[in-house]
Design goal:
It is a multi-pass membrane protein. The protein is mainly alpha-helical. It is built from twelve helices and no strands. The protein has a single domain, classed as Rhopdopsin 7-helix transmembrane proteins (Up-down Bundle), CATH 1.20.1070. Helix 9 runs antiparallel to helix 10. It binds zinc ion.
């Protein structure tokens, strides 16, 4: 006699209770799904409008509405998925390498764990920021403070990565190499401070450029040894012949990501056409995370090919840079985030309606009046 899961469940004494609970959850989910709606930009305060995005905004969502909204079309859906999937990939990569290599015990491999952790952290924080920033104006600022801080932390992870595996041989054991990591750590903390500061000011083109600059300057410093090595390396003795394709691709992809972030193209020229997919922030995510992937591929080639040569030259990075400096960078950025939230004295409401009881569940069809 064929025994199905349903028939087995029905014979269990607690089945009525479980089935009634499941039915309640199903009804609440359906009800919540229908309640999750979005607003047009004309109902939003200027501080929360994005250039060229006319519809699909989520405001004042509850936690369950946020979760449901991730599976419905709005102007953050693609932003969320383009970073949560890569975050899972980098977590898997970290776990996979941990199971096959001495990531936490061999001084040569330890910097890789710091780097991969930062590669996982920044898209994860970004995805969560894009998901939950709609819960309140305060959460919006807090989420993006965390987003900026993990991006700055990633610059530190990349610095440790380059220092350990991609540094030019001619620069080993020089003042440049001795100052590289301390300045990178300082840059990481400073960039969090500057990016958070840009959000405390009124959102404008200047604020966007200022924020972009706070990430570009550390990026240039962190990348400087790799650029120098690619320009001067000997492909016969160095692994640059194998890894340069990935490193150069990474630079091109970062340039593309920065271009779209700074210009708001294509939605600037065709407002409303890219509200849900294809706008500049989607492109920033796709190009940015692709750059990180290329960076990892190039660095892993260098790690593998240069090991004997680097160790022979006495180039083993002190594990303290990972185990001590990394937590210090993290704590410093958390302190900056805490201070930033304390001095936010002008958190403007999402919408121009004075009554903030407005919930997305309410129809907005009657309130299409211009706010500003
Ligand atoms: Zn983003």
């Amino acid at each position: 006699m064929k025994v199905t899961l349903k028939s087995s469940l029905m014979t269990w004494s607690g089945s009525d209770f479980v089935l009634s609970k499941l039915e309640t959850v199903r009804k609440e989910a359906l009800h919540g799904y229908n309640k999750v709606t979005v607003l047009p930009s004309e109902e939003l305060d200027d501080a929360y409008k994005e250039v060229g995005i006319l519809n699909g905004y989520r405001v004042n969502y509850s936690f369950s509405q946020v979760i449901i909204s991730l599976f419905k079309v709005n102007n953050e859906t693609v932003n969320f998925w383009t970073h949560i999937v890569p975050a899972v990939y980098f977590a898997w990569k970290l776990a996979f390498l941990y199971s096959s290599q001495p990531l936490l015990s061999d001084p040569y491999w330890i910097p890789l764990s710091c780097y991969l952790f930062s590669c996982m952290a920044y898209p994860l924080a970004s995805a969560l920021a894009h998901a939950f920033s709609c819960m309140s104006p305060f959460s919006s600022h807090l989420c993006f403070f965390l987003d900026y801080s993990t991006l700055s932390f990633y610059s530190w992870g990349a610095a440790v990565f380059y220092y350990s595996y991609c540094f030019p041989e001619s620069a080993l054991h020089t003042y440049y190499s001795y100052s590289y990591l301390p300045i990178s750590a300082l840059n990481s903390v400073l960039s969090t401070f500057l990016a958070c500061s840009s959000r405390l000011k009124k959102q404008s083109r200047f604020a966007t450029t200022f924020r972009l600059g706070s990430f570009v300057v550390p990026y240039i410093w962190v990348s400087s040894p790799l650029v120098y090595r690619l320009l001067t390396c000997d492909p016969i003795t160095d692994s640059c012949a194998e890894s340069s394709y990935f490193h150069v691709s990474q630079f091109v992809l970062v340039l593309a990501a920065s271009f779209f972030y700074a210009t708001h193209i294509p939605e600037r020229f065709l407002p409303g056409y890219f509200d849900f997919i294809g706008h500049s922030h989607n492109l920033l995510h796709v190009f940015g995370i692709s750059a990180t992937y290329q960076q990892m591929c190039g660095g892993l080639i260098d790690l593998s090919f240069r090991k004997t040569r680097l160790l022979g030259m006495g180039w083993t990075v002190d594990p303290l840079w990972t185990w001590l400096a990394t937590p210090l960078v993290i704590v410093s950025t958390l302190v900056i985030i805490f201070c930033s939230t304390r001095i936010m004295d002008d958190v403007r409401p999402f919408t121009c309606h004075s009554n903030q009881a407005l919930r997305p569940s309410l129809s907005h069809t009657n309130s299409a009046k211009k706010c500003h």
